[in-house]
Amino acid sequence: MPEFCDFTVDLSNQCGDDYPIAGLGNIYLAPVRQLDPAVTVFSALNHDITALGLQNAGSFMKIEGKVSTKDLATENAKDGGGNVFNITANAMIPNLDTVTSFALKQYGKQKVVAIIELFEKDATTGNRKAIVIGLDNVMGIDAGATFAYNDTVEAEQGGVNGYNVVITGTQGESPRFFKGAITIKDGATTAVVNLG
Questions:
Q1: Do residues 112 and 136 touch, judged by C-beta distance below 8 A?
Q2: Could you give the CA distance from residue 90 to residue 92 in angstroms, rounded to a whole number?
Q3: Rg of the Cα trace of the chain?
Q4: To which H or E segment does residue 161 belong?
Q5: Strands (DSSP E) along 16-143, which ranges?
Q6: What is the pTM assigned to this prediction?
Q7: Start-end of H helices in 93-167
Q8: Which pLDDT band, with edges at 50, 70 and 90, does 3 fall under?
Q9: What number of CA atoms fall less than 13 Å from residue 175's CA on the CB side?
Q10: pLDDT in tens, 44-79
Q11: In whole angstroms, what separates CA 137 from the centre of its chain?
């Protein structure tokens, strides 16, 4: 029988923020099979991922969803002696157009890894905090998340036209925080985003 692990961290809230700035920022996607395990680093000390490398000089794609239309929910299921986390992230991309529709169709053909940017900033670095969906240290890239989208047009004057996107993952551990840099597509060029 395995030995128990001591509980060593007191979770009491000594100095809470009564008015935190919460919510989701940008979402960054890449095909989970494009991840390079040799340069993907899971922290042994914290619940962090400190490096996410892509093969073939790949880049993450950015989804800049409409503010206040994004949410993330995690459900922990303990079935059959296992510990599984089901994660769902939702966002709304405004403006229906053929280019976006075609790109979303390509994203939906394969499993993805998603980095979800939070509005909250890290006190040490000043970078926005972020979590990773579709990759963990238990299932590895087999955790991969699915990407689905639906066209939406609100039936009212001044309503919203766009796409509702849903990223769904099943993992062997809760989403890890990401602390590092990623390369993203920025039009025809690339840019570096620092998170965590």
A1: no
A2: 7
A3: 18
A4: strand 161-171
A5: 24-31, 41-42, 48-51, 61-63, 71-77, 84-94, 112-121, 128-133
A6: 0.88
A7: 98-107
A8: confident
A9: 27
A10: 999 999 999 999 988 999 998 888 888 999 999 987
A11: 15
The closest alpha carbon to 104, from 67, 34, 142, 152, belongs to 152
Distance CA 23, CA 20 (A): 10
Confidence of residue 13 (pLDDT cuts 50, 70, 90): low
CB 161 within 8 A of CB 94: yes
CA of 124: how far to CAs of 26, 128, 177, 180, 194, in Å?
21, 11, 15, 13, 13
The sign of the torsion formed by the CA atoms of 87, 39, 130, 89 equals negative
Cα separation, 38 vs 35, in Å, equals 9
User: Which residues does 72 contact at the CB level (< 8 Å), separation at least 6?
Assistant: 24, 87, 88, 89, 90, 116, 131
Structure tokens at 90: 């939702």
**Residues pairing with 185 in the sheet:** 190
The CA distance from 52 to 36, in Å, is 8
Q: Is 28 helix (H, G, I), strand (E, B) or coil?
A: strand
Residues in the chain: 196
Q: What share of the chain is helix, strand, coil (3-state, %, to 5)?
A: 10, 45, 40
